[in-house]
Amino acid sequence: LTAMGEPNMDPTISAADSTAQQDSLFSMTDVFLISLITGLFTYWFFFRKKKEEVPDLPKMQTVAAPVRDSSFIEKMKKTGRNIVVFYGSQTGTAEEFANRLSKDAHRYGLRGMAADPEEYDLSDLSRLSEIDKSLAVFCMATYGEGDPTDNAQDFYDWLQEADADLSGLRFAVFGLGNKTYEHFNAMGKYVDKRLEELGAQRIFELGLGDDDGNLEEDFITWREQFWPAVCEHFGVEATGEESSIRQYELVVHTDVNMNKVYTGEMGRLKSYENQKPPFDAKNPFLAQVTENRKLNEGGERHLMHLELDISNSKIRYESGDHVAVYPANDSSLVNQIGEILGTDLDTVMSLNNLDEESNKKHPFPCPTSYRTALTYYLDITNPPRTNVLYELAQYAADAGEQERLRKMASSAAEGKALYLSWVVEARRNILAILQDMPSLRPPIDHLCELLPRLQARYYSIASSSKVHPNSIHICAVTVEYETKTGRLNKGVATSWLKSKVPEQNGSSPLVPMYVRKSQFRLPFKPSTPVIMIGPGTGIAPFIGFIQERAWLKQQGKEVGETVLYYGCRHEREDYLYREELARFQKEGVLTQLNVAFSRDQAEKVYVQHLLKKNKENVWKLVNEGMAHIYVCGDARNMARDVQNTFYEIVSEFGNMSQPQAVDYVKKLMTKGRYSLDVWS
Q: Quick check: is 227 catalytic?
């Protein structure tokens, strides 16, 4: 274009020259224009094509629903909140406590919101001071051996790496743990300590809840001192409002397409009919039960071995991992609740969150029926917590029953003692409470709002994927006991699993399940010796370990000493996997099989007694052989007694004092040479 305009800019060019130049110019211009147009067209064509191949990439990324929501700070500003309660929860209790604290806030003229740290960017904590009278509370459960819960893993990683300035942040922490575990409340303690290190201001002391004692009482005691501290800090007062506040509203669906109604799915509607990997807590796999056999030959208990078929699921597992199963409540309990409350359990309804800004739209998948909710989504067998009793009290027509419920929900010493004896120790579930309080007849929708979610149950996998790539094995004992009120209580999951027996005609019952990875792993080198200690159903992961060591031996690998310490009550009654263990020993894979029969003689003999008996050999394997030690089973007594036995052995043969021996064992744990898979 510049070349075309240039001749007109020089007035000294003659008319003839101008004409000749113009003829020449137009021919050049034609060529240039054609070239330019061709070039532009080519460029446009390829550019356009490129854009078509990747249409609106940024939009696609947005539509793909990122894990993180918008900033929790922006959300708090938008909704007028000043208190955020984050929860690290594996079984739902920490989430429940967080919800209770966020609801409490209104009594002090504040507004709270419970938040899942997995859904937000926690680096925004440094901005919380932008909100007046702001406070972050953390209800943090500890999982396994001092680990964060799944939903708090990212937050934990961020805390470890962060160098953020949190000097404007005010915080408080309540930890949920269990004193029978080695790393009691490790996560709560770490969050409390680390936030202070980053400059945050603690406005109330760390609370340490103990599930081995009375977690509910620990929480109430902490909470009743926490709120006065908040009031003092911010200069606010309680409004005195103790009224019940509904979080959800009931919508009954009279004309609904049943294809849009949840029937027990954990996440996606119809996910049980149309299964798609990957499978996890929100998308469990429906595994067929191909075997369910009784393991014990006698006694009152029922110990069982189940095999779940995971063919075509793409599920992978390692020896030592856990399998989670979603159980269903006993239909007779569900029916009795429906009868007592005079409800048509097949009514299809939704409970919709009154807070439209909340990420949690429903307390469980909706729309669904009351029957489905009480069967698959709600915990109806555990004793209800005090907040449930408090909310239900308003529905007791009898003044005495109402007062009793309110008293048990109070923080008074008398009320706590009554709750402990009448609810916790008597193991009264919601059905028992309704039966024993004839005037208490709450609306079923409010009851469904208040009851906690039914949680998945975890079992140590009793197989090796090297030997059984398409099958996961479970070893479990049914839980059944009589309460102080004379009722027979049954464990939800084990009673349900017991009923999952394959039919003679070949049809197999289904179990919703997924795999949770564990740190409980065999040594990297097969030649490393292993000492496995697992009485009762604690033998489960070791069946997988021994299977794997046998497989490695068959592959021509050098396999180190494989030593098992197992215990049961009676040799002739509950010696689990007896034939399998004898075969492994005969094949030379299981180099030592030490079995303690606790009740076959006058004096009880446990696994720790056998460890003491073989103490020289144990020390040699640990000290010279660099053996890895594994303990699986009861945390309250067995794991502690076994650990104390190791302290004694180390002290005696390592010529160490008691504190040195304790330090030696702790270092084994740090190095991954002393691993625990225990429960209480």
A: no
